[in-house]
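Help: why these numbers?

___
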Amino acid sequence: MKAGAVRTSKQASLEVLGSLVVVAWLLVLPLGAGAQVVWDAPALMRPGAPAGLSLLLIEAYPGDGLGGLAMWRSAPAPIGLGFRGGVAEEPDDDAAVILGIDVSGSLASPGTDGEPEVVWWTGAGVGVGDELLVSFPLGLVLGWELSDEEVTFAPHVGAHVSLDVITGPGDDLDLDGSVDLGVDLGFPSGLMVRFAAAVGGREALGIGVRLPR
């Protein structure tokens, strides 16, 4: 690998970190979605996001909103495509349905093993509950993938902003943002354990597995 290519990779990583700081400032904005269930948190996006079917238990917002989420993704290169759908509780104990589609692509590939990779992602989806919430996110994610003979370890950190269109009793148009954190642990069997969290405007948790392909 040429030195110039390595520098380019490092420069791109620093630029992404700067962008994530800017997005983090957006987290001081008023919460747009409130207690509405959103489709894009936790984001579960990273470089090399695993292809196949993932099943997760989610907490759609702090202290409540338990539900289930199913995700399917194509191979990540050159453009990754994903679909997700699930059900989660709302504060009044009614059920909300979430549906979404996402696309992602690489901004900076790693120069050597262990170096970070950067991806962008966007998409569109809905949360259907007491109100209809349509969301259009745009985000960046910085991630690593380290592996040995037994386990693949893939931590990632990112941030995204979402344009929320709320229809119903509380019609509104808002901009919301979150920091996205996660780690995937892959095993020789093909099973992958996934942990993810969104912190800030869209707080959510997720834990589950990517099934062997």
Remarks:
- The helical segments are 3-25.
- The chain has a mean pLDDT of 83.
- The CA atoms of residues 6 and 116 lie 11 Å apart.
